[in-house]
Amino acid sequence: MVKTVWDYTFEGTNLVVDAFSFGRIPECEGYFLSHFHGDHYTNLNAGWTHGPIYCSEITSRLVQKKLRVPSNFIRPLPLNRSCLIPGTDNVSVTLIDANHCPGAVMFLCVVPQTDSPPLRYLHTGDFRACKEMCLHPLLKQPENPPIDILYLDTTYLDHKYSFPSQTTCIQLACDVVERHINHNGDNQLSNMDHLLTQKKELKNKKIIQKTVVVVGTYSLGKERIFIISLGIAKKLKSKIFVTDRKMEILSCFGDDELMKMLTDEPKEAQVHVIPLGHILPENLEAYIRSLQPHFTQMVAFKPTGWTFRTSSLEQDRSLDAIISAGAADMTVLKSSYESLTLKIYEIPYSEHSSFRELALFIASLDIRRIVPTVNVHNEKSRAKMGSLFDRWQKEKKKMAVVDYPSLDHW
C-alpha cells in the first residue's frame, strides 16, 4: 500500500509532517520536519519554495548548512513552548524532545474546535519512548486532556525486538575499554561510574597509549552513543578524531565544549568516530595498520538496533505481563570479531523504541486513537498493529506512568 499525503497530515488541518517527498502540496499551511534524517526530508533542497518549514533550532541549522534551503522558508521553533502557526485557525504546536538524534522532536498539535474542547494530536516522528516524555507538563496524565490521535513510530513494534536501555549499553562499552586498557598496560581508566558526567577541561597532551578506540555512527544519528567517545576521551585526556563531514554536522549542535575536544588529525586522538558502514574487519585491520606504530591495538564498537533480539515478550502477552517482564538485560558485551590487533563489539543500541517501551508509552497516556507511521506497507501489517493497539487500550487500568528506576528509560 502506497502512502498518500493524508498519511502525513494532522487530521482536520493543512499541516503535514515529513511530507517533503510530495513537493508542493496544495493548500498546505505548514511543512513540519521532525528531524534531519534523509528518509524524512526527501526532495527538500536549495530550490525549496513551497512554504514555511517548521522544525527545531538544531534541525534548522542542519537544513541550512547541509541542504542549502533558503533561510526565509525556515521557521525554527523552541522546545516546550506552545507556538501559534500563522495562516491557521489558531492551531498551536509544541516541540518535545524525541530522544532520537540531535534536534529530533515530537509535535504536540492542538486544534481548536467551535463547539467542543480542542483536539490534541501527538506525532512522535522517530523516537525512543521514555518515562520523562510521559511526565512532560503537556502530556502527563491525568492532569491533561487525552491525546485524540497518536501518530506513533512503530519501527520495532514486534515482540522479537528487545534491547537494554541506552545508559546500560553505554556503560557496557565503557567497561570493555577499561578492561582492554588495563590488560594491555595503557594508562588505566578509573572511576568509570562518573565517566558520563565529568566536565573537566582537557589539556592537549601527547598521546602515549597504544590502543585506539573506534566508534561507528551514521552521518547523523546514534549520536547519544557518541557519549561513549566523549566520556572515554575525557578519561584518557584525549581529543576525538572525526571526519570533516562529521565535524561540520557537530558544529550545528551549539556545543562549544564538544567542539574543543574534536580534531581532524587521527594520530592526535585515541578515540576515533568513523562512519558506521566502515566498521568491518577488513576495513579496520587496514585502518589500524595505517596508524602504526602510533597505535598498535584497536577496540571498535558498532552500535545497532538489530544486535539483540529476544522472544521472551510474546506478541500475544497481556500488557501487564509485558510491563512486569522488565527490560532486556545484559551484563557484558561479547566481541563479534577478534584478531591480534583488533576486537569488534556490537552494541544493541537503538534510537527507536523497543516493543516493550512502545507498550509502556501507550500504557502511560490516555490515547483515543493510534495511527502507526512505520511498517504500514500493506493491509495485513496495518491490521496486525491495529489489533495489538486495541488489546492494549482495553487492558489499560489506570492513566499513570509505569515505574522504572530511571527517568530516561523504563
Which descriptor suits the 3D outline?
A: globular
| CATH topology heading of the largest domain | Metallo-beta-lactamase, Chain A
Number of E-type strands: 17
Radius of gyration computed on alpha carbons: 23 Å
Q: N-to-C SSE series?
A: EEEHEEEEEHEHEHEHHEEHEHEEHEH
As laid out across the biggest beta sheet, the strand order is 12-11-13-10-14-16-15
Count of structural domains: 2
The CATH architecture designation of the largest domain is: 4-Layer Sandwich
Structure description:
This is DNA repair metallo-beta-lactamase domain-containing protein. By secondary structure, the chain is an alpha/beta fold. It folds into two domains: 5-156 and 354-395, Ribonuclease Z/Hydroxyacylglutathione hydrolase-like (Metallo-beta-lactamase, Chain A, 4-Layer Sandwich), CATH 3.60.15.10; 166-348, Rossmann fold (3-Layer(aba) Sandwich), CATH 3.40.50.12650. It has ten helices and 17 strands. It has helices at 57-67, 131-134, 166-184, 226-236, 244-250, 256-261, 281-291, 319-325, 355-363, 379-395; strands spanning 15-17, 30-32, 53-55, 74-76, 83-84, 92-97, 105-111, 119-123, 149-152, 211-217, 239-241, 262-263, 269-275, 297-304, 335-338, 342-348, 370-372. The strands form three sheets. The protein has a seven-stranded mixed β-sheet, with helices on both faces. It has a six-stranded mixed β-sheet with strand order 5-6-7-8-9-17. Strand 6 (92-97) and strand 7 form a beta hairpin. Helix 3 (166-184) runs parallel beside helix 4. It is globular and about 75 Å long. The two termini are 34 Å apart. Residues 188-208 have low confidence and may be disordered.
